Amino acid sequence: MDNSYLHRKKLLLVDDEPELLKMVSSILSNSGFKNIVTAISLSDGIAAARNEKPDLAILDVMLPDGDGFLLMQQIRTFSDIPIIFLTAKDEAVDKLSGLGLGADDYIVKPFLPQELLLRIYAVLRRCYKEDTAIINLDGCTVDFSRAEINKAGEIIPLTAMEHIFLETLARNEGRIVTVDVLCEALWGENPFGYENSLNAHVRRIREKIETDPSKPVSLITIKGLGYKLNTRK
């Protein structure tokens, strides 16, 4: 599953460092985001959020005419867009302040470009569901918006856990997703001990999606590592 529907979202970046704004804008643009709005102060950020109507805002905490926390509170008076703080302030109290106000994530500078992108994708996916999230497999199609499989005309429902499992693999189409990552997606932050349950889910999902579950071609086991999902264009 590609990120094309996420790349159509408009992003607002607010930071008083021109070089950082340029760098982050470049990272986002190179990864496919083309609708990027920037601001360098609290007042400019409020105006941009109100007039440009972005789908997500990335705010610095330290601004010349206030701080990102106040900016977030001002934005919240007219918009409920997701907000990520991107800041050099890594004190626990600042992180708790941001998250306590309802921020969707908090990233500390310096950061890896890939980390920033993955966090943005995660927030956008959580807040904006793709209208037609359908993937094609060898013997069926999976419609995530309906939580169902169409297999030779037969409609097969997905359970909530099966939906999460397949969606996690689909977001990483063609790449290996480790057992630990899948268990965490299904059972939370402490997934230890769920490997047998994961295997049971894999067996049931293969019965639903594979033409021959004993010879899977879509949901592939990578021995000692995890699983990957092969889709068809």
Which features characterize this protein?
4-stranded antiparallel β-sheet, alpha/beta
Termini Cα gap:
10 Å
Arithmetic mean pLDDT: 87
Low-confidence stretches: none
Instruction: Provide the gyration radius in Å.
Output: 20 Å
Task: State the helical fraction.
Answer: 40-55%
Mind explaining what this structure looks like?
With 233 residues, the protein is of the alpha/beta class. The protein is 41% helix and 21% strand. The protein is built from nine helices and 14 strands. The strands form four sheets. A five-stranded parallel β-sheet has the order 2-1-3-6-7, with helices on both faces. A hairpin with a 2-residue loop joins β10 (148-151) and β11. α3 (42-52) packs parallel to α4. The longest helix is centred in the middle third of the chain and has 15 residues, at 113-127. The chain is elongated and about 65 Å long. The protein starts with a helix and ends with a strand. The model has no long low-confidence stretch (mean pLDDT 87).
